[in-house]
Amino acid sequence: MNATAPSPAPGVPVERRESGESALGASVERREGRQKVTGTARYAAEQPRPGRAHAWPVPASVARGRVTGIDTAAALDLPGVIAVLTHENAPRLSEPDDAMLAVLRDSRVPHRGWFVALVVGETLEAARAGAAAVRVDYAVEDHDVTLTRDHQAAYAPEEANGGYPGTREHGDPEGAFASADVRVDVDYRVPPLHNHPMEPHATTAEWQHGRLTVHTSTQGATTVRTVLAGLFGIPEDHVTVHAEHVGGGFGSKGTPRPDVVLAAMAARHTGRPVTLALPRRFLPAVVGHRAPTLHRLRLGARPDGRLVSLIHEVTTHTSRVKEFVEQAAVPTRVMYAAPDSRTAHRVAPLDLPTPSWMRAPGEAPGMYALESAMDELAGELGMDPVDLGGAGGAPRPAAGAEGPLLVGSGVAAATYPVLVHPSTAAVRALPDGTFQVGINAADIGTGARTVLAQIAADRLAVPVDRVRIEVGSTDLPAAPLAGGSSGTASWGWAVHEACARLAERLAGGLVPAEGMEVRADTAGRADADSPYARHAFGAHFAEVAVDTVTGETRVRRLLGVYAAGRILNSRTARSQFVGGMTMGLGMALTEGSTMDAAFGDFTESDLASYHVPAHADVPDIEAHWIDEDDPHLNPMGSKGIGEIGIVGTAAAIGNAVFHATGTRVRELPLTPDRVLGGIGRGAVPRGF
Q1: Catalytic residue status for 643
Q2: Is pLDDT of 683 > 60?
Q3: What pTM does this model have?
Q4: Given the DSSP bridges, would you call strands 435-438 and 467-470 parallel, antiparallel or unpaired?
């Protein structure tokens, strides 16, 4: 489709192939890309305000207790140190709805790494040196940071994350399982995982005449403004939040984190602009993490493979600061039809950091366990889940391999819900024939600017280089956060509607000298109850080579095929799919965190110890999709694509390792010691 011609369905973009993207989205991508590679794109910590100071937090060094004394004298004596904020002198704020933001309010220490002081200095180096000089005394209390399936404090929550019921049961799942012809009863474990965006959490805050302006790294500037206004007791229109460029988030920037509150407190206390950029090693303790999940799956089936019972029970942890329940059993309610089923969560409050959103919360760990168990059920039934046109069957030595390698293939399904939220947007026609679209969306590296420009250009029937997109500021029309793969669907609906109204007003008339602006608000429609189930689905395929001497697993090929509505831009969509699959590869093979029981601390606190995939780990990844027309979504017919790529990848890789070696490792990541341990138990590679 040419950008200057109306689409077959008026105002609705069709799938873009690479051949047409240079005419549609390339100009927006070039503008954005040029700013980033030349360093002119300013991120939250890169705001050179006159008189700007820098801040550095002081984390608690005990796992639980309270502060009994803070000696700041040595810090204040250092050159360049301006102030030290503690619970004794920090500005008093209102009680936050999110207890993770209750920083410097009192003497309690709910977990190791909780911030107990903040040092402000003329330079970053001065603030860091000052933080090291602060001396804190504690009254230490006993702590518990170890999650077990039978933890005595575990309880059944009423709801899991997302508002899903904590437990759902149909029929008699226990009885149906006991009488099933074929049964699988297995346990799987996913460890704690951490969001490590390229740009750590950072904020620059400034007060002027009772008004607060912050530049912060967030997935939702509108939410940040609301929270800050409530905390500081000022009207929302006295708070301006900018987040024009965001260097990734993976869920950890979905809601405000302590950096934005502390920076605003320090700016008010000192009367100067203050920048706070959290050191990476502090992130696991204060910005959330994917909680560990212990899964028990019981699958009962008839000899023909039809399920008669499905039971998925999950135990996870939360903090004593705030309840967050990873909804890892919820995707099981969607994927397979079983007449008798139970999906249930239990959660244990422990003395550790509060877990939160991480890419595909619930779906990523839940589908790993479910699809691994389904692979085990296929084996019990004598079915071959990896018969990919001759690629399945018995594992085989690697062609041309110099060592004792076994190659196997695996498959797993994926699903992710379609979420849409109300949004507002404005579009202005200018006399020179160009258009300005304003919406407080967040481009966290997903190409939101490009796709929104395409939606606008299609509906206005103009070339995309005549459309300018402004995002990432509360000066723009309010919009929901970038989360739950809902961004494009939510923002695009408002942009589409505003452009449609403007096109009607422009028909047969000239643009006045002052321009012409139209606004749209999708409240009442985007959030209306729908009688239709709305999900994206996918299938993941993996080929791995396993060294039987070292236990090293290498993924040779990954393939993902998706049904995700109408794809609006194939280049940005493929990037999202491949990015999710790469993250799933890390989840399967390298990423994992351990909680030190004695110190109450995550031992993997930086990228030297928390291993994310490197280029050498990601050889051949393909992402494809089928054309899907679902009229019950939004005017564009699009579904979210940011998260489904991770959902089935880990299970496909784990199933491929089993196919290659006969070793079923039920705990992630599939490290060499675990793979070798299974092989060493005398497991025999299976064949069909």
Answers
A1: yes
A2: no
A3: 0.93
A4: parallel
